[in-house]
Amino acid sequence: MIRINDNFTRLPISYLFSEVAQRIDRFKEANPSADIIRMGIGDVTLPICGAAVNAMHKAVGEQADANTFHGYGPEQGYDFLRRKIADVDYRRRGIDVAVDEIFISDGAKSDTGNIGDILGTDSRIAVTDPVYPVYVDTNVMAGRAGTLEADGHWSEIEYLECTAENDFIPSLPAKSPDVIYLCYPNNPTGTALTYSQLAKWVEYARANNVLILFDSAYEAYIRQPDIPHSIYEIPGAKDVAIEFRSFSKTAGFTGLRCGYTVVPRSLEGLSADGTKIKLNALWRRRQCTKFNGASYVVQRGAEALYSEEGQLQVKEMIDYYMRNATLLRDGLHDIGLETFGGINAPYIWLKTPGSMSSWDFFDKLLEECLVAGTPGSGFGPAGEGYFRLTAFGHFDQTKEAVKRIKRLKLN
Ligand code: PLP
Q1: Which protein residue has the closest C-alpha to ligand 1 atom 2?
Q2: Which of 1, 78, 238, 280 pairs as cysteine with 263 (C-beta 3.0–4.6 A)?
Q3: Pick from 99, 59, 98: which is nearest to 79 by CA?
Q4: Three-class SS of residue 183?
Q5: CB-count burial class (<10 Å; 0-12, 13-18, 19+) for 273
Q6: pTM reported for the whole predicted model
Q7: For residue 188, which atom of ligand 1 is closest to its CA?
């Protein structure tokens, strides 16, 4: 019989969201008429904006005509979209990112997961804790994580704790990792790093030959002026960082699938014989071999987001969700719950009352308020005692959820 990749068998069976779904299902079975408001899974609810929809209709028309039909596209993405990204997302912010440093993909989950393909199998990894689970699980699959310990940590991964005690700002690693995953604005805590806080990480990475994998999937939610929109705003970051972006939360593309990754040409790694190799060339090779490009229609939709009309519609969508975030923050604060995030991100991270566990709070919120959220402990050991609510619901539902949460019995 064939041998399997044993690393997969090391992964814990229950994935966070399936456990959440199972608990909701059990509750619904016992309470069939319960009208549950789901504020757990981070999917958006507003439809795709008009500018993108029109562009995609047009692109579908092109696909129906032999003269304008597009088959396989460039694996790295079409230049029409890469040029818009280089111009609007970077040049207009004073950042120099070349078109051939941009790789269009089917989303940031794939890219943050796949990037490990070009890294050494013995690279030492550091992640923030709590963490977007994809960073950890893909390293488990690749055999870099070691074994799962009783406290929920993987033996070979360095965890950088983010709690209320350190204002959710991780301290620099103690164990000299090779690769650090940073996600800002952060999922799940909803917190952000200021320019000077992020600059410390770039400085550290430059001094210690560390690669930063910077996930910026929530960049569009940044509102405060001292929060950098790209890690490349920090001088020298192009020598140490790969940046991941997504149209999922920016423009409701969670179902369409489109994102991109910037791999600067100046980024280098070492081969086993000590030769310096460009990561840009490695990633291009990886993508050309394993990926056939995001669809033409979807890339035309993404391109339209950069038009004047598209930019306005994206802003309206983000404003809508951020109004929810404010409503949630204020409502939770009114009943004395300690909240974080929700200012530069669509996530509200709250401290559970007393010493209640994240899962106990999940059950309490479900039973008393018919509101489902996500237990913080599902994102890593340091998430225990916290809870995540998302601002991606409809406004009326969010209002209703806040009304119900205000009835929570806290004593
Ligand atoms: N990165 C983070 C931090 C996320 O929270 C998510 C989605 O929830 C993703 C990446 C995935 O984005 P995409 O839909 O582009 O795959």
Answers
A1: 217
A2: 280
A3: 99
A4: strand
A5: exposed
A6: 0.97
A7: 5
